[in-house]
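COMPLEX REQUEST
Ligand: magnesium ion
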Amino acid sequence: MGAQGSDGTREATPVWVAVPAAGSGARMGAGIPKQYLPLAGKPLAEHTLAALLAVAQLRETVVAIAPGDPHWPALAPALRARVRVVDGGATRAASVANALRGFSRRPDPGDWVLVHDMARPCVRPGRIAAMLRELDADPVGGLLALPLADTLKRADAAQRVAATVPRDALWRAQTPQVFRFALLERALDEALASGEEITDEAMAIERLGLQPRLLPGSEDNIKVTRPEDLALAEYHLARQGAQS
Ligand code: CTP
Ligand code: MG
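STATUS: Structure written out below.
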Protein backbone atom coordinates (compact mmCIF):
# COMPACT_ATOMS: atom_id res chain seq x y z
CA MET A 1 0.00 0.00 0.00
CA GLY A 2 2.92 2.33 -0.65
CA ALA A 3 1.90 5.82 -1.68
CA GLN A 4 2.65 7.09 -5.14
CA GLY A 5 5.52 9.60 -4.93
CA SER A 6 5.42 12.88 -6.88
CA ASP A 7 7.97 11.47 -9.33
CA GLY A 8 5.77 8.45 -9.99
CA THR A 9 7.86 5.98 -7.97
CA ARG A 10 6.15 3.96 -5.24
CA GLU A 11 7.18 4.93 -1.73
CA ALA A 12 7.63 2.16 0.79
CA THR A 13 4.96 1.91 3.49
CA PRO A 14 6.35 3.27 6.78
CA VAL A 15 7.27 0.53 9.29
CA TRP A 16 7.01 1.23 13.02
CA VAL A 17 8.53 -1.23 15.50
CA ALA A 18 7.19 -2.40 18.87
CA VAL A 19 9.43 -4.55 21.06
CA PRO A 20 7.89 -6.22 24.11
CA ALA A 21 10.63 -6.48 26.73
CA ALA A 22 8.73 -6.28 30.01
CA GLY A 23 8.77 -9.97 30.92
CA SER A 24 10.47 -11.35 34.01
CA GLY A 25 11.90 -14.53 32.49
CA ALA A 26 10.33 -16.94 34.98
CA ARG A 27 11.25 -20.04 32.98
CA MET A 28 14.85 -18.89 32.69
CA GLY A 29 14.98 -18.51 36.46
CA ALA A 30 18.12 -16.37 36.31
CA GLY A 31 17.33 -13.81 38.99
CA ILE A 32 17.31 -11.03 36.38
CA PRO A 33 15.08 -10.89 33.28
CA LYS A 34 16.60 -12.98 30.49
CA GLN A 35 16.81 -10.05 28.06
CA TYR A 36 19.64 -8.64 30.17
CA LEU A 37 21.67 -11.85 30.52
CA PRO A 38 25.09 -11.87 28.84
CA LEU A 39 25.10 -13.49 25.42
CA ALA A 40 28.25 -13.61 23.28
CA GLY A 41 29.81 -10.80 25.29
CA LYS A 42 26.93 -8.36 25.61
CA PRO A 43 23.41 -8.21 27.03
CA LEU A 44 20.93 -10.28 25.01
CA ALA A 45 18.76 -7.22 24.34
CA GLU A 46 21.64 -5.47 22.55
CA HIS A 47 21.76 -8.24 19.93
CA THR A 48 18.01 -7.93 19.31
CA LEU A 49 18.04 -4.14 19.09
CA ALA A 50 21.10 -4.09 16.83
CA ALA A 51 19.42 -6.53 14.44
CA LEU A 52 16.20 -4.49 14.33
CA LEU A 53 18.00 -1.16 13.94
CA ALA A 54 19.98 -2.61 11.02
CA VAL A 55 16.80 -2.82 8.93
CA ALA A 56 16.96 0.30 6.77
CA GLN A 57 13.35 1.26 6.29
CA LEU A 58 12.14 1.24 9.90
CA ARG A 59 10.61 4.52 11.06
CA GLU A 60 10.77 4.41 14.86
CA THR A 61 11.22 1.76 17.55
CA VAL A 62 9.39 1.64 20.88
CA VAL A 63 10.49 -0.80 23.58
CA ALA A 64 8.09 -1.74 26.39
CA ILE A 65 10.04 -2.42 29.58
CA ALA A 66 8.93 -3.27 33.11
CA PRO A 67 8.04 -0.14 35.11
CA GLY A 68 11.15 0.96 37.01
CA ASP A 69 13.32 -1.60 35.19
CA PRO A 70 16.79 -1.09 36.74
CA HIS A 71 18.64 -2.96 33.97
CA TRP A 72 17.59 -0.93 30.93
CA PRO A 73 19.89 2.07 31.68
CA ALA A 74 22.91 -0.27 31.62
CA LEU A 75 22.42 -1.10 27.93
CA ALA A 76 24.69 0.56 25.36
CA PRO A 77 23.81 4.29 25.14
CA ALA A 78 24.19 4.28 21.35
CA LEU A 79 21.37 1.74 21.07
CA ARG A 80 19.16 3.31 23.73
CA ALA A 81 19.46 6.67 21.98
CA ARG A 82 17.82 5.21 18.89
CA VAL A 83 14.64 3.89 20.57
CA ARG A 84 11.81 5.20 22.70
CA VAL A 85 10.77 3.47 25.92
CA VAL A 86 7.34 2.97 27.51
CA ASP A 87 6.11 0.97 30.48
CA GLY A 88 5.03 -2.56 29.64
CA GLY A 89 1.93 -4.24 31.03
CA ALA A 90 1.03 -7.38 32.94
CA THR A 91 0.85 -9.48 29.76
CA ARG A 92 2.74 -9.47 26.51
CA ALA A 93 -0.36 -8.22 24.70
CA ALA A 94 -0.69 -5.33 27.15
CA SER A 95 2.99 -4.48 26.67
CA VAL A 96 2.56 -4.38 22.88
CA ALA A 97 -0.63 -2.30 23.19
CA ASN A 98 1.31 0.21 25.33
CA ALA A 99 4.14 0.28 22.81
CA LEU A 100 1.68 1.20 20.05
CA ARG A 101 0.84 4.35 22.02
CA GLY A 102 4.49 5.27 22.48
CA PHE A 103 5.34 6.44 18.96
CA SER A 104 6.20 10.14 18.57
CA ARG A 105 3.17 10.49 16.33
CA ARG A 106 0.21 8.30 15.60
CA PRO A 107 1.06 6.05 12.62
CA ASP A 108 -1.32 6.18 9.66
CA PRO A 109 -3.95 3.39 9.66
CA GLY A 110 -2.26 1.54 6.80
CA ASP A 111 1.30 1.84 8.11
CA TRP A 112 3.00 -1.38 9.14
CA VAL A 113 3.75 -2.18 12.78
CA LEU A 114 6.43 -4.80 13.24
CA VAL A 115 6.36 -6.56 16.63
CA HIS A 116 9.43 -8.51 17.69
CA ASP A 117 10.17 -10.27 20.98
CA MET A 118 13.21 -8.86 22.75
CA ALA A 119 13.87 -12.51 23.66
CA ARG A 120 14.68 -13.40 20.00
CA PRO A 121 18.23 -12.08 19.58
CA CYS A 122 19.15 -14.15 16.50
CA VAL A 123 16.67 -12.62 14.07
CA ARG A 124 18.41 -11.67 10.81
CA PRO A 125 17.90 -8.17 9.38
CA GLY A 126 17.88 -9.61 5.86
CA ARG A 127 14.92 -11.85 6.71
CA ILE A 128 13.01 -8.89 8.13
CA ALA A 129 13.61 -6.83 4.99
CA ALA A 130 12.51 -9.77 2.83
CA MET A 131 9.41 -10.32 4.97
CA LEU A 132 8.38 -6.71 4.44
CA ARG A 133 8.81 -7.12 0.67
CA GLU A 134 6.79 -10.34 0.72
CA LEU A 135 3.91 -8.67 2.56
CA ASP A 136 4.03 -5.56 0.32
CA ALA A 137 0.38 -4.73 -0.47
CA ASP A 138 -1.17 -7.34 1.83
CA PRO A 139 -4.24 -5.82 3.51
CA VAL A 140 -3.67 -7.60 6.85
CA GLY A 141 -0.07 -8.66 7.46
CA GLY A 142 1.71 -11.81 8.54
CA LEU A 143 4.25 -13.51 10.70
CA LEU A 144 7.32 -15.68 10.50
CA ALA A 145 6.54 -19.27 11.36
CA LEU A 146 7.92 -22.77 10.92
CA PRO A 147 6.06 -25.91 9.82
CA LEU A 148 6.18 -28.53 12.59
CA ALA A 149 8.71 -31.30 12.13
CA ASP A 150 7.97 -33.59 15.10
CA THR A 151 4.99 -35.92 15.47
CA LEU A 152 2.55 -34.45 17.97
CA LYS A 153 1.03 -36.34 20.89
CA ARG A 154 -1.88 -35.23 23.06
CA ALA A 155 -1.37 -36.38 26.68
CA ASP A 156 -4.00 -37.54 29.15
CA ALA A 157 -3.93 -36.68 32.86
CA ALA A 158 -1.60 -39.62 33.57
CA GLN A 159 0.85 -38.40 30.94
CA ARG A 160 0.07 -41.25 28.58
CA VAL A 161 -0.64 -40.69 24.91
CA ALA A 162 -4.32 -40.03 24.36
CA ALA A 163 -3.96 -39.29 20.66
CA THR A 164 -1.60 -38.46 17.83
CA VAL A 165 -2.46 -35.06 16.44
CA PRO A 166 -2.01 -34.72 12.66
CA ARG A 167 0.73 -32.18 12.16
CA ASP A 168 -0.06 -31.31 8.53
CA ALA A 169 -0.76 -27.64 8.27
CA LEU A 170 0.52 -26.91 11.79
CA TRP A 171 3.08 -24.14 12.17
CA ARG A 172 5.02 -22.71 15.11
CA ALA A 173 4.59 -18.94 15.33
CA GLN A 174 7.66 -16.75 15.71
CA THR A 175 8.24 -13.02 15.52
CA PRO A 176 8.52 -10.60 13.76
CA GLN A 177 4.77 -10.28 13.27
CA VAL A 178 3.78 -7.40 11.00
CA PHE A 179 0.31 -5.88 10.78
CA ARG A 180 -1.43 -2.73 9.59
CA PHE A 181 -1.41 -0.22 12.47
CA ALA A 182 -5.15 0.43 12.78
CA LEU A 183 -5.97 -3.28 12.57
CA LEU A 184 -3.43 -4.24 15.20
CA GLU A 185 -4.46 -1.48 17.56
CA ARG A 186 -8.11 -2.49 17.37
CA ALA A 187 -7.31 -6.19 17.58
CA LEU A 188 -5.22 -5.81 20.73
CA ASP A 189 -7.63 -3.42 22.44
CA GLU A 190 -10.58 -5.74 21.77
CA ALA A 191 -8.62 -8.81 22.80
CA LEU A 192 -7.49 -7.18 26.05
CA ALA A 193 -11.03 -6.01 26.80
CA SER A 194 -12.33 -9.55 26.24
CA GLY A 195 -10.08 -10.95 28.96
CA GLU A 196 -9.08 -13.86 26.71
CA GLU A 197 -5.45 -14.91 26.87
CA ILE A 198 -3.71 -13.66 23.75
CA THR A 199 -0.29 -15.16 23.16
CA ASP A 200 0.68 -13.32 20.00
CA GLU A 201 -0.47 -10.47 17.77
CA ALA A 202 -1.67 -12.85 15.08
CA MET A 203 -4.13 -14.39 17.54
CA ALA A 204 -5.62 -10.97 18.24
CA ILE A 205 -5.97 -10.36 14.49
CA GLU A 206 -7.57 -13.80 14.04
CA ARG A 207 -10.21 -12.85 16.62
CA LEU A 208 -11.39 -10.23 14.11
CA GLY A 209 -11.97 -12.97 11.55
CA LEU A 210 -8.86 -12.07 9.53
CA GLN A 211 -6.16 -14.44 8.33
CA PRO A 212 -2.53 -13.38 8.80
CA ARG A 213 -0.09 -14.73 6.21
CA LEU A 214 2.40 -17.38 7.30
CA LEU A 215 5.89 -16.62 6.02
CA PRO A 216 8.71 -19.16 6.43
CA GLY A 217 10.92 -18.36 9.40
CA SER A 218 14.12 -20.13 10.29
CA GLU A 219 15.31 -22.48 13.02
CA ASP A 220 17.91 -20.00 14.23
CA ASN A 221 15.30 -17.37 15.22
CA ILE A 222 14.77 -18.98 18.62
CA LYS A 223 13.00 -17.42 21.58
CA VAL A 224 15.45 -17.65 24.45
CA THR A 225 13.25 -19.21 27.11
CA ARG A 226 15.15 -21.74 29.21
CA PRO A 227 18.79 -21.85 30.41
CA GLU A 228 19.89 -24.23 27.64
CA ASP A 229 18.70 -21.74 25.01
CA LEU A 230 21.56 -19.35 25.83
CA ALA A 231 24.21 -21.68 24.42
CA LEU A 232 22.03 -22.35 21.40
CA ALA A 233 21.60 -18.63 20.75
CA GLU A 234 25.38 -18.12 21.05
CA TYR A 235 25.88 -20.89 18.52
CA HIS A 236 23.47 -19.29 16.05
CA LEU A 237 25.02 -15.84 16.48
CA ALA A 238 28.52 -17.22 15.93
CA ARG A 239 27.37 -19.08 12.84
CA GLN A 240 25.67 -15.98 11.44
CA GLY A 241 28.81 -13.94 12.10
CA ALA A 242 30.93 -16.49 10.25
CA GLN A 243 28.58 -16.33 7.24
CA SER A 244 28.42 -12.54 6.94
N1 CTP B 1 6.85 -9.67 27.60
C1 CTP B 1 6.38 -8.36 27.83
N2 CTP B 1 5.46 -8.12 28.82
C2 CTP B 1 4.98 -9.13 29.57
C3 CTP B 1 5.42 -10.47 29.34
C4 CTP B 1 6.35 -10.70 28.34
O1 CTP B 1 6.82 -7.43 27.16
N3 CTP B 1 4.11 -8.85 30.53
C5 CTP B 1 7.87 -9.90 26.55
C6 CTP B 1 9.11 -10.59 27.06
O2 CTP B 1 9.99 -9.64 27.66
C7 CTP B 1 9.67 -11.23 25.81
C8 CTP B 1 8.42 -11.50 24.96
O3 CTP B 1 7.36 -10.76 25.56
O4 CTP B 1 10.54 -10.38 25.09
C9 CTP B 1 8.11 -12.99 24.90
O5 CTP B 1 7.72 -13.44 26.19
P1 CTP B 1 8.38 -14.66 26.99
O6 CTP B 1 9.38 -15.36 26.16
O7 CTP B 1 7.28 -15.42 27.61
O8 CTP B 1 9.23 -13.86 28.12
P2 CTP B 1 8.94 -13.83 29.68
O9 CTP B 1 7.51 -13.60 29.93
O10 CTP B 1 9.92 -12.86 30.25
O11 CTP B 1 9.39 -15.30 30.13
P3 CTP B 1 8.56 -16.29 31.09
O12 CTP B 1 7.24 -16.51 30.39
O13 CTP B 1 9.42 -17.51 31.19
O14 CTP B 1 8.39 -15.55 32.40
MG1 MG C 1 6.05 -15.07 29.31
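REMARKS: The longest helix spans residues 228-243. The chain has a mean pLDDT of 95.
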